[in-house]
Amino acid sequence: MKTKLWFFNKLAVILLASSMFSGVMAQSTIPQQQARQIIDATYVKDAICFVPSGILAEETQAEGSDLFGFDLTRGWFDRPRHTHLSPMGTPLIHPFRAEPAFTLTDLLMDYSYRNETGLNEHEIETEMELALTRRAGLIVEIPYRCIDRDHDASVNGFGDLAVSPRFLLAEYDRFLLASSLEIATPTGDSGRDLGHGEVALAPSLSGWFDLGHWWTVHAQCGSEHALQSNESELFFRAALIHTFGAKEDKQDDNNHDADHDELHGLAPGILSLIFEVDSAIGLSGEEDGDVAAEGIVGAYYSLTKHIDLRIGYQFPLTTSEDLNNGVIGGLIWHF
């Protein structure tokens, strides 16, 4: 509707300029070329100024960018992006717990130590994130756990394998929205507390917000449902990230002739500080009504174009949480 109004407004002003041009030519002795210059400088300028600035800005954005906004008909079969910068040049930093709204082809290797009441838990988790298309991705993760109990023998082994398809729903310069469905399979030994012993589904929505000046917010909200025991919980995760370092030129990942190494990864020396909250409330089952929340304060450092390092300190935010303290750290390889 705005485009139609703009067209008719501009057409009317052009017609008005043409009629006045004819009057000038008929009643004046000004040379034709000079008259045309007067008309161009006056009435064409007025025609442009007559158009509301919001419409001009909207047209410029639509024509100068390939971002698809909330248009769900585009981008499903486009090749995936290989850049770790947003269209505004803001670094895309992966939080510790919250699943991001963007999907890149990365391998994450994390070690986590948790000191809980009555036990110490060590976990090494391998997570592979695959960008299949510009809007679709797949995440596969498997943990290896070692549990040291105060009054029992230690156990170790693989936990539950989880597979998560992720779909980008909205794409703007400063905002991303994605949906995912995590499917946890009972590959871990539930008798030794290495797994849950049943299939669990966890649908969620993830958002990424660029606040400007390299401040970003990640937010994820969803629920987890165990199919056999009918236990369920609602979870919310959020991360506030601030990045320091020299700003790079915005990368053009639509350039097919560019070197792949130049299209992804952050410049070495980029440092980010992460403040993250992971919370859950039981909806049914043994933990019905229980509220648990913990925080993570950490740092994310780009070692090379292909490898990033991150490390954080874990601490409880609620008294019902068994966690006393812990640490988490790992490497991220960009492909």
Fraction of helical residues: 10-25%
CATH topology of the largest domain: Porin
| Tally of helical segments | 4
Strand line-up of the largest beta sheet: 1-2-3-5-6-7-8-9-10-11-12-13
Low-confidence spans: 1-8, 10-64, 251-263
Q: Secondary-structure element sequence?
A: HHHEEEEEEEEEHEEEE
The percentage of residues in β strands lies in 35-45%
CATH C-level label of the largest domain: Mainly Beta
Output mean pLDDT. Answer: 82
Any idea what the radius of gyration is? 28 Å
Question: How does this model look, in words?
Answer:
The protein folds into two domains: 2-64; 106-334, Porin (Beta Barrel), CATH 2.40.160.40. It contains four helices and 13 strands. It has helices at 2-27, 32-50, 53-64, 260-263; strands at 106-116, 119-131, 136-149, 155-158, 161-171, 175-185, 200-212, 215-226, 232-244, 271-284, 291-302, 307-316, 323-334. Helix 1 (2-27) runs antiparallel to helix 2 (32-50). The longest helix is centred in the first third of the chain and has 26 residues, at 2-27.
